[in-house]
Write a structure and sequence with these properties.
This protein has 223 residues and is α+β, with helices and mostly antiparallel strands. The protein folds into two domains: 2-79, OB fold (Dihydrolipoamide Acetyltransferase, E2P); 82-222, Up-down Bundle (de novo design (two linked rop proteins)), CATH 1.20.1440. Helices cover 43% and strands 21% of the residues. It is built from seven helices and five strands; from the N terminus they run E-E-E-E-E-H-H-H-H-H-H-H. It has helices spanning 87-102, 111-124, 129-143, 150-153, 158-170, 182-197, 206-222, and strands at residues 2-15, 19-26, 30-36, 55-61, 68-78. It has a five-stranded mixed barrel with strand order 1-2-3-5-4.
């Protein structure tokens, strides 16, 4: 059957010379695997709509209750262009997309997760990258049914971190917001979130490994 969906591209990989296999998160159907034929051809109409961290409208063909689809048409809804002008923002966008890709099941729609990712990518174009990143992780875990309490934060420094988490839960992804105090606790918080989800992953998050390697390289180059 044919369906129309709003989708954010989480992951894209080449299939042969002309096609792409995508992992997309849709507002209507949840996460799906989708085949986009011919989009690697020069001048292909759907090329831009199938890039990671882009929001698109697609017409899909897929069987009822099946998490695999074929893209038959579509267009870009929002490319979040400012992300692509700064590598640190784009690397964070890719990290959020991979987190969504690796930690959501196929074919289980949760429109609130779609909206969370869309708002995070939009705010990331000019907002506080660290604040947006951590607020996304906290709110994602809450929407996934995990209470971000002592089980995740640990008992050491729990009271101080709990206050920070409360602010992150309430964050509305306003691009003009700032939270200077976050810089001190951010590395500890993200490390605890990553350790908590590690048993759910069969391998490390690729975007995080690349981001840390690039940061290390740039730091060494400056010194």
């Amino acid at each position: 059957m044919y369906v129309n969906v709003h989708a954010i591209i989480l992951r894209s990989e080449r299939v042969g010379e002309k096609d792409k296999r995508l992992s997309i998160y849709t507002r209507e159907q949840g996460r799906l695997m989708a085949l986009a034929r011919g989009v690697n051809r020069p001048g292909a109409r759907l090329a831009a709509a199938t890039e990671p961290a882009v929001e698109s409208r697609f017409r899909l063909w897929h069987g009822e209750h099946q998490p695999f689809a074929r893209i038959t048409g579509g267009a870009v809804e929002s490319s979040f262009p400012n992300l692509r002008s700064q590598w640190v923002r784009m690397s964070t966008a890719q990290f959020l997309c991979e987190w969504m890709d690796r930690l959501t099941a196929l074919g289980q729609p949760q429109p609130e997760k779609y909206e969370l990712l869309r708002r995070a990518l939009s705010a990331l174009e000019k907002g506080d990258r660290l604040l947006i990143r951590l607020a996304f992780l906290v709110q994602f875990l809450e929407k996934a049914g995990y209470s971000v309490g002592e089980e995740i934060l640990g008992s050491s420094g729990y009271e101080r971190l709990r206050e920070t988490v409360a602010l992150l839960k309430a964050f509305d992804f306003s691009p003009d917001a700032s939270f200077p105090e976050l810089a001190e606790s951010a590395p500890m918080l993200e490390d605890r979130f990553l350790k908590f989800v590690a048993p759910l992953l069969d391998r490390p998050l690729k975007t995080l490994v690349h981001e840390r390697s690039l940061t290390s390289y740039r730091t060494q180059k400056r010194s």
